[in-house]
Every structure is written in C-alpha cells, then in structure tokens.
Amino acid sequence: MPIDLRAMDNLSFIRGAIERAGSFTAVSGMGQSVVGITALGAAWIAARQMTRDRWVWVWVAEAMAALLISGWAIARKAEKRDLPLFTGASRRFALSFGLPIAVGAFLTPPLLNSGAGDYIPGLWLALYGTGIVTGGLFSVAIVPVMGICFVLLGACALYAPPGWGDLFMAAGFGGLHIGFGIAIARRYGG
C-alpha cells in the first residue's frame, strides 16, 4: 500500500477516534435559562386550565418553544466558539436524550384516556431527567447532575398530592433550567 494512502487511512482513523471520544460542549447555559423563564410562564398558564387535556397542550407548546430556543442557542454557541455542531458526540447526545422524551410522548395519551393524568408531571420530569442524564454522558459534567435533579423531582411528583403537579413542573422545567443554565453559562461559557 502506498505511503500516502496509509497516511490518509491513519488520519481517518485518528479523526474518527477523536470524534468518538469527544463530548458535546455546545450546551448553552443562557439558552437553558431562557427555557426556564418560558417554562415558568407555561406553568402559570397551565395551572389555570380547566381540563388536563388543555393543560397538556400548554406544556406541548412550551416543549416546542423550548426545543426551538435550545436549538438556536446551541447553534449560536457552537458558531461563536467555532465548535463542531454535528459530531458523533452530538448525535449520541440527541439519540440518548430523545428516546426518553419519545417514551413520555407515547405514554401521555394513554394516561390521559385512563384518567391517570395526574401522574403526567412526575412522569415527564423523570423521563426528561433520564434523557438529560443519558444525553449528558456525552456532554460536560454538570449536565448529568441536572438530569439527576429532574429524576428526583419527578419521583417526588409521582408520590405527592395531585394538586402539586404544577409546582413540580415550575420547579423543574423553570427553576432547574434557570439554576443550571446560569451555572453552565458561568463555567462553560454562553
């Protein structure tokens, strides 16, 4: 094999190894804080809904807004810091985060239809936390810690009186995002 082909093969192997070992560092603390602020607004609106179905739609709208805000903030941080956005680590982060979120989405209609909608806040918080922990394994160290806090809050919500669901949602999606967002922004920039 000619030396130039061996060199290209070695470079390709090295690039792949670095990409596989890398972490997803474009998580935006400021974006997380903004998501927390919008979640506090959603919690306020959701608490005033007359039916659990309408309550769910408020949170679905918030989830879509949070996805757009987070995506924009991550892309902005990656561009600003000249970080690669679509790497093996970012794909693993997205897959690991996305699967628990999808499970939450699949379980929500049956819970609503069976009259067990009061368990949705705990389920969502716990599954979101699971996604943050598993996705955070490919990110900076503080991200899985945030996920564990969501899981613990979700566990508390599952066993708390049903009327406390909105408080847990505000504390998790609002308070935890704001607090950890500030910490991420200070420690890891942006």
Give the tags.
190 residues; mainly alpha
Describe this structure in words.
The protein is an all-alpha fold and about 190 residues long. The chain has one domain (about 25-190). Helices cover about 80% and strands about 0% of the residues. The protein is built from 7 helices and no strands. The chain has helices spanning about 5-20, 30-45, 50-80, 90-115, 120-135, 140-160, 165-190. It starts with a helix and ends with a helix.
Layout: helices, strands, pairs:
Blueprint: H1 3-21, H2 29-46, H3 52-80, H4 88-113, H5 120-136, H6 142-159, H7 165-188
SSE order: HHHHHHH
DSSP, total strands: 0
Content-based structural category: mainly alpha
Beta-strand content bin: under 5%
Q: Major β-sheet, in short?
A: none
Number of DSSP helical runs = 7
Q: Looking at the structure, what is the overall shape? A: elongated
